[in-house]
Design a protein that fits this description.
flavoprotein; 414 residues; FAD/NAD(P)-binding domain; binds flavin-adenine dinucleotide; FAD; 9-stranded mixed beta sheet; elongated; alpha/beta
């Protein structure tokens, strides 16, 4: 199997509004891909039983196609035309469709993709495929309505984002610019990567440490002992590390407001080093020695409660307490934790999963997709556009069949 192509370019988990938008974008692509939709429900439905005589939160323009392609055959306007209600809709003087009618619009769209959807099929797991080297495809385990399980191979996967935000580990590193060539090392992997970080280089590496726990602080202390490193930045919410203020400076230190992607879960937010003055002393002592030895070229910077993304923007390597990934919160992807770095948010409705360098072939992608907007009760306005991006990415990959794209994104990561 190692040399053969996976059966599908893309397997989509579910056939809700977001995936219907994907199906539409694919059909309208210059070169459409081989896509399969696996939906656990026996037939299409959209919140059946919850459709009161209320209206959608947004205008009909934010349907599954218009924003990406106003000339699409799947626009709400075209649906109204097909139902012979276009003029009446216009005369009703309301831009927001009735929810009941929107459900019919979604069903009308869904019916046009019958041949690509397997209803009554639940995806129960996703595992890497492709033998010893980089993952070359995904093995998607599917349980049909009779309880029989089979495996489908897909080059890429789009799955619904986990819906209950409360169950998620905090989003981490999503704002770090993966394209900028930053490499991210988990605090748990620091020891095994230490010699690589410490090694002599022509241009000294700038390193950022992100975290508030004991481990992160100890790593900071250790990094400061390395004379070959450049600037070292600590981004933390640990007030025990707050830099000393100039005497007489009346300004209050900024209250810790780490943006949510860096924030620790509430249970681990407490400082764990407040009672280790020797460690703090060592850190500031070593930081000062560094400044003196490098004649001011390199410094230690401690950033409390400011935008961590900016603070880390010049780092060549980021050692982070949380290299968490959203996939962990979805049972389907438990087996992939070791491959995943994090998720990169694109607009309101799309996240692209970022994999460790060399772990996954550049043609093998994964997206989390949701038509939910922030509040969870209305469709995301950019869904048509974002699903178009998925299809575009697939088309690029398919065009380069057998050859890796020049994936700078992938190459930049550890
Ligand atoms: C009761 C209720 C009312 C709502 N009313 C509105 C409204 O009036 N207007 C509005 O704009 N939004 C409303 N929403 C928000 C709604 O969630 C979104 O509009 C939209 O349905 C989200 O689309 P989606 O494709 O991201 O997810 P979903 O609609 O949840 O679609 C995901 C699909 O994937 C399938 N699936 C999931 N896991 C698997 C698996 N492992 N294997 C196979 N299939 C799987 C699910 O069965 C589902 O069909 C409402 C939500 C709820 C809960």
């Amino acid at each position: 199997m190692a040399n053969s192509s996976p059966t599908y370019d893309l397997v989509c988990v579910g056939f809700g509004p977001a995936q219907i938008a994907t199906a539409i974008a694919n059909r309208e692509a210059r070169k459409s891909c081989n896509v399969l939709f696996l939906e656990r429900k026996p037939s299409f439905s959209w919140h059946a039983g919850h459709l009161a005589r209320t209206r959608m939160g947004a205008s009909f323009v934010y349907d599954l196609a218009t924003i990406r392609n106003p000339r699409s055959a799947f626009t709400y306007v075209n649906y109204l035309l097909a139902r012979d209600r276009l003029v009446e809709f216009a005369n009703s003087d309301r831009l927001n469709p009735l929810r009941l009618e929107f459900e019919d619009y979604l069903r009308w769209c869904a019916e046009q993709f019958k041949d690509q959807v397997r209803y009554g099929n639940e995806v129960v797991g996703v595992a890497p495929g492709g033998g010893e080297g980089a993952v070359g495809w995904w093995n998607v385990a599917v349980k049909d309505a009779n309880g029989k399980t089979s495996v489908i191979q897909a080059r890429s996967i789009a799955a619904p984002s986990p819906s209950d935000k409360r169950d998620q580990t905090p989003q981490v590193l999503t704002n770090v610019d993966f394209l900028a060539g930053q490499r991210i090392v988990s605090v748990d992997d620091y020891l095994s990567r230490r010699s690589e970080i410490w090694e002599r280089r022509e241009t000294p590496l700038n390193v950022s440490v992100v975290g508030s726990g004991q481990k992160a602080v100890e790593i900071l202390d250790d990094l400061l002992a390395c004379p070959r490193l450049g600037n070292i930045t600590m981004v933390t919410e640990n007030q025990a590390l707050a830099p000393l203020r100039i005497l007489g400076d009346s300004a209050e230190p900024p209250s810790p407001q780490l943006c949510s992607i860096w924030a620790s879960p509430a249970s681990t937010q407490k400082s764990t080093v407040t009672d280790s003055p020797a460690l703090i002393q060592s850190i500031y002592g070593r930081g000062y020695e560094k400044q003196v030895a490098s004649k001011g070229a390199f410094t230690l910077r401690v950033v409390i409660g400011s935008d961590a993304t900016e603070a880390c923007s010049k780092a060549d390597i980021i050692v982070s307490e949380h290299v968490a990934n959203k996939l962990s919160s979805s049972g389907l992807f438990h087996g992939l934790d070791a491959l995943v770095l994090g998720c990169r948010q694109k607009g309101e409705s799309l996240e692209e999963v970022q994999f460790k360098r060399g772990a996954v072939s550049a043609n093998c992608r994964m997206w989390l997709l949701s038509a939910h907007s922030e509040g969870g009760r209305s469709l995301a306005k950019d869904i048509a556009q974002r699903t178009g991006e998925i299809v575009r990415a697939l088309t690029l990959a398919v065009d380069d069949e057998g050859r890796e794209r020049n994936g700078t994104v992938i190459a930049a990561r550890i």
